[in-house]
Amino acid sequence: MIDHTLLKPDATCRDIERLCEEARQYGFAAVCVNPVMLPVAVRNLAGTKVIPCAVAGFPLGATTTAAKAFEAEEAAQAGALEVDMVLAIGAIKQKDYATALADMKAVVKAVGPGCGVKIILETCLLTDGEKIIACKLALEAGVRFVKTSTGLSTGGATLHDVALMRATVGQQAGVKASGGIRNRADAEAMVAAGANRIGTSAGIAIVTTT
């Protein structure tokens, strides 16, 4: 259930190789990296069940739709089986739902059916009503997961947000809790609230402590 994540700008190829080694050892669901490091992850995860994952429009979601779609398509062509894209947050805030929907649809279309898209809502910047709308748009766009946070804004995952997102998408999409989850108790609480994927850089600590 864990996406083993390293999105720091100073990450090196050796750091990503180590991340992949750990993911293989502990049976994590995915390794999530910046696009520039995706080839390293794909190469080091070949022949395993661990999913190579890259981000798009990260971390602000404020790039153009065309840029997000190109970034996501390039990642899929390089071997990503999942892409975590950031919501067009400003569009949601100003009730321009058509733009937010088109943004998601463009990325889903760009990667094709072989690559799943997760939409990062950045829940700390949205009202509950906006979170619900964003989740419903995600379902319409064919997104496979709704995700709480980048971990780089003003807040991370909360139990309230995970439960709200699960209640909104039901079983039509996955829910990924990400941002500030650093121990087993936090991870288990997120799962109990409705998350079926955990994004964290503390995956080893979560699975090796009681």
Task: Describe the structure concisely.
With 210 residues, the chain is α/β, with parallel strands linked by helices. The chain is 46% helix and 18% strand.
The number of helical segments is: 9
Helix proportion: 40-55%
Under the CATH scheme, which architecture would be assigned? Alpha-Beta Barrel
- Rg calc: 16 Å
Q: How confident is the prediction overall: mean pLDDT?
A: 98
Keywords summarizing the entry:
210 residues; alpha/beta; TIM Barrel; eight-stranded parallel β-barrel; 9 helices; 8 strands
Architecture blueprint of SSEs:
Elements: E1 2-6, H1 13-26, E2 30-33, H2 38-45, E3 51-56, H3 65-77, E4 82-86, H4 89-93, H5 97-111, E5 116-120, H6 128-141, E6 145-147, H7 159-169, E7 174-178, H8 184-193, E8 197-200, H9 203-208
Helix pairs in contact: 1-2, 3-5, 5-6, 6-7
Describe the structure in your own words.
By secondary structure, the chain is α/β, with parallel strands linked by helices. The protein has one domain: Aldolase class I (TIM Barrel, Alpha-Beta Barrel), CATH 3.20.20.70. Helices cover 46% and strands 18% of the residues. It has nine helices and eight strands. It has helices spanning 13-26, 38-45, 65-77, 89-93, 97-111, 128-141, 159-169, 184-193, 203-208; strands spanning 2-6, 30-33, 51-56, 82-86, 116-120, 145-147, 174-178, 197-200. An eight-stranded parallel barrel has the order 1-2-3-4-5-6-7-8, surrounded by six helices. Strand 1 (2-6), helix 1 (13-26) and strand 2 (30-33) form a beta-alpha-beta unit. Helix 1 runs parallel beside helix 2 (38-45) and helix 6 crosses helix 7 (159-169). It is globular, with a radius of gyration of 16 Å.
